[in-house]
C-alpha cells in the first residue's frame, strides 16, 4: 500500500487568483438580482474585484515561495506579471462598461467571463509546471472563445469565435503532445525538476525532448500570435467586440510571455542552443510579417491586429537575447521584456480606447480611409490621444514605446544579436508608414462635415485614456521608475 | 548654469497654462502669457551666457545632467544640457528672436476669433522642443527635440486647417520631416552600435576610433535628417508650402530657428564630420546647389512669402556650403545674421499682408511705401542685409562664406563662383519683391469696409500697432549691427567667442577660419558690387521702366518707336534671361519633385506589394490557416532538430 500524503495547501500564495475567481462567481450570482437597466454596476463590481486582487499582490512582493507541491511559483517575477495582467483587466473592464451597452451585448455574463479569463492568465503567470500551464491556457482560451463571439447574431463575431476555437484546439493538440513527449523524455513536467533532469546529457540530446520542446513552442506561438501561427489573429481581432480585442491583445500576450520566459529560463535553460535559434527565426518572421502586412490594412482593428503581431516580434527579440550566457546581459534582456510589455499594455489599450470612444450605437468607426479623415477637427483630444499612441507604438520619442524599443534593441546588441536589432529597426521604419498614416488621415481635411461622431467621452473611458496617456508619457520621460521595478522583478528569475 | 533649465521651464509653463487653463482666460491673455514666458527665458539665457563666459576659455563646455533618462549601462542617455558657446548662442537666438516674434504675433493674431489659445500654446511648445534640440547633451535627446519641433511645426502650419492648402502643406511637411527623422534614427542607431554610447562627450572623444566608412555612413544618415529639416535639395519641397501657416510662424519656425537645426546638427557633430571628408564634400555641393536653385526659383515667384521661403532655402544652402568646406564658424555666423534679417523680412511682409487684408500676391500689391512706412523701411533694411550691402549684417557673414568657399582647402573655384553669383541673384529677386510691394501704383483692392472706423485711417489699411512696430525696430537694428561682431582684420569677437567649441575634444582642431587680407576684401567688394548691380537691375526693371513707359506712351506718340524698342529689350530680356531661368527653374523643380516621388514610391512599392501578397494568403478559410500552422510546426521541428545535430 502506498501512503497518500495530503499535500500542503498554501492558499495564501494564490490570493490574487482566488479573489478574482470569487469575484467572478459573485458577479454571476449578482446578475440574478440586478435589473437589466442597472447592469453597469456589475462592471464596477468586477473592477473592484480586480483592484482588491491587485492589493493582495502587494504583500507577496519580495515574499516569494513555491506552493502546491511546487506546481506554483510565486516570486517577484510572477507578481510583476500578475499586477500587469490585473491592471490590463481593470482597464479592459472600464473600457467595456459603456461599450457593451452601445454594442447591445450588455449581458450578465460578460464581466464574469472577463474575470474567469483573468484567472486563466494568472494561472499562466504563476505556473511552475507544464500541466498547470496547460490548464491556465485552457481556462483563458475558453473564456476568450465565448467573448470573441459575444455579439450573437453578428456573423463576423461568430465567425471569429469559431475560427479561434477550431484553430486554438488544433494548436493546443500540439502543445499537449509536446508536453507528453517532454514527460516521456525527462519523466517530469515540473519546470524545476525539468531543469535538473536536463543535467543528464542523454535527456538533453534526446530527440523526444527536442520534438516535445518544438511542439510546446508551437502552442506558445499560437497564443502569442507569432508568424506563421498568426493567421487567426486579424480575423479574430476584427470580428470580436472591440473591448474584448483590447483585452485579449494585451492580457493574453502579457501572461503568455510570462510563461514563455519561465519555461525557457527556469525549465529548459540548458537547451538554449535549441530554443534560441527557433525563437530567433520566429522573431524575424514575426517582425516582418506583422509590420509589412499592416501597411495595406484599411480596417483599424485589423491594422492593430497586425501591429500587435509586430510588437510581439520585438518582445520576442528580447526573449531570444535572454539566452546570453552572461548573467547581466541576460538579466537586461528579461528586464526589457518586462518593460516592453508594460509599455505595450498602456499604449495598445489606449489605442483601442480611442476606437471605442469614437463608436456610436450600431456603428463603429473602423474604416481608416473614410472614418478617420478629419476626426481631429471634431475631437482634438481623442485625435491627439490616438496620435500619441500611434507615435508610441511606432517607437517615436518621448514615449514609452520608444524607450521600450530602445531597451529591447540594446539588449539584442549586447547579446550579440545585432542582426535581430537591425531587422527590428528596419521593420520599425516600415511600421511608421501605417502608424503615421492614421495621424495624417486624422489631421487631413474632410471633404464633408463629419456629424455622426459622439458628442462626449463617457467617464470610464476618459479614465482609461487619461491613465494610458499619462503612463505612456511617464514611461517615456521618466522610464527609470518602471525600469527599476522591472529590475526588482528579476529577483528570482535569474538563473 | 543650472538656471538654464528655467529657459525650458518658462515656455513649458506658458504652454501648460494656455493649454490647460486657457479656456477660462480672456482672449488677449493667451498671447501675453506666451510672450512673457519667452521674455523670462530670454533674460535667463543672458545669465547663462554670463556664467559661461566667466569660465576660462578651455573649460567652456559643461555637461549638466538633470537626471538619468534611460538608465542602462554603457548607454549614457541622460536628460542633460550640453552648454558651450555654440548652444548658448543658439539659446539666445531662439529665446530672443522668439520673444520679439511672439510679441509681434500678439498684434498679428489679435483679430482671430478662435484659435489664439491653440496658436500660442503650440508656439510655446515649439520653443520648448527647439531648446531641447539645442541644449541636448546626447543624440537621443536631440532626437526628442528634433521630432518635437517637427510636430509643433506640423501643428502650426495647419493652423488654418479649414484651408485645403494649409492641411496639405502640413501633411507634406510632416511626411518629409519624418523621412528625415528616420535617417536620423538609423544614424543614431549606428552611432550607438559603433561607439557604444550616444552622449556627445563619449562619442566625440572617441570619434576617431571607428573606420572612415562607418563614420561616413553615420554622417550621411544624420545628413538626411539635416537636409529634411533645413529644406535642402532634394528634401526641400515642404518648405515653400509651409508658408500656408500664419506669418509669425513662418518667421520663427521656417526662417529664423527650426530650419537652421540642420546646420546646428552639422556644426554640433563637427568632430564626426571632420573625419568624413566624403560627407563634407556632399554637403558643400548640395549646399551650393540649393543656394543657387532656391535663388533661381525665387526669381519667378509671385507670392511674397514664397519669395522669402525660397530665399530661406537659398540662405540655408550658404550655411551648408560653409559647413561643407569646414568653415563651421562662418556657417553659425550666417545663421545668426540670417535669423535677424530673415525674421525682419518676414515680419515686414506680415505687416504688409496684414495691412491689405491677407493678400500675399505681389501682383496685387504696389505703392505701399507711404502707406505702411515702417514696413517699407524694415523690408528695405532686411533686403540690404540679405543682398550683402555693407555695412549691413549680411555683408560680413555672407562674404565670410564666399571667401571660405574659394580659399578653404575643401573649397574650390566652382563653389566660390556659385556662391558669388547667387549673391547677385539674391539681391535682384529680393528687391524685385521689394519694388513690386512698395513702389509703382497700388494694385491691391481697397474697400475693406469697417476697418476705417476702427483704425481711423482713410485708406482702409490696417496699421500695425505698437506690439508689431517694436519687433520691427529691434530686428532692424540687429539686421544692421548684427554682423559687426566679426569684421575681418578688425573685430574678432565672434571667432573668439566660438573658439572653445572647436577646441574640444582637444584631440582635433578644426580650423577656425580667419578671413582677412587682400583676397578677402577683393571678394567682399566684388560681392557687394554684384549685390548693388542686382538691386539696380531690379530697380530698373520694376520701377523705372514701367513708369517711363507709361509716361512716354501718354505724351509723345512719335517716340512710339523708342517704346517699341523698350519692348524689344524687354522681350530680349525675357528671351535670354527670364524665360530660360523660369524654364530652368520649372524643369528642375519638376525633375526633382518627380525624382523624389519615384524614390519614395519605389521603396514603398516593394513593401506594399509584399503586404498585398500577405493579404492574399489571408484567405479567411480555417483549413488554410490550419495548413499554415501545420507547415510552420513541421518547419519548426525540423529546425530545432537541425540545430541539435
UniProtKB/TrEMBL annotation, chain B:
Q: Which Pfam families does this UniProt record tie to the protein?
A: Proton_antipo_M, Proton_antipo_N
As one GO molecular function, the record gives: NADH dehydrogenase activity
Location relative to the cell = Endomembrane system; Membrane
* Alphabetized Gene3D superfamilies for the sequence: 1.20.5.2700
Top-rank EC class of the record's enzyme:
oxidoreductase
Q: What InterPro entries does UniProt report for this protein, alphabetically?
A: NADHpl_OxRdtase_5_subgr, ND/Mrp_TM, NU5C-like, Proton_antipo_N
Its chief place of residence is membrane
Q: Which UniProt keywords apply?
A: Membrane, Oxidoreductase, Transmembrane, Transmembrane helix, Ubiquinone
**Protein name according to UniProt:** NADH-ubiquinone oxidoreductase chain L
| Domain NADH:quinone oxidoreductase/Mrp antiporter transmembrane span(s) in chain numbering | 136-415
Record GO biological process? ATP synthesis coupled electron transport; electron transport coupled proton transport
- Start and end residues of each NADH-Ubiquinone oxidoreductase (complex I) chain 5 N-terminal domain: 69-120
Q: How does it sit in the membrane?
A: Multi-pass membrane protein
Traced from the root, the source organism's taxonomic lineage reads:
Bacteria, Pseudomonadati, Thermomicrobiota, Thermomicrobia, Thermomicrobiales
Q: Which NCBIfam families match?
A: NDH_I_L, PRK06590.1
Note the superkingdom of the native organism: Bacteria
Q: Name one GO cellular component term.
A: membrane
User: Which regions span the lipid bilayer?
Assistant: 32-53, 89-110, 119-136, 142-162, 174-198, 210-228, 249-270, 282-304, 374-393, 413-431, 470-487, 518-542, 624-642
EC number per UniProt: 1.6.5.3
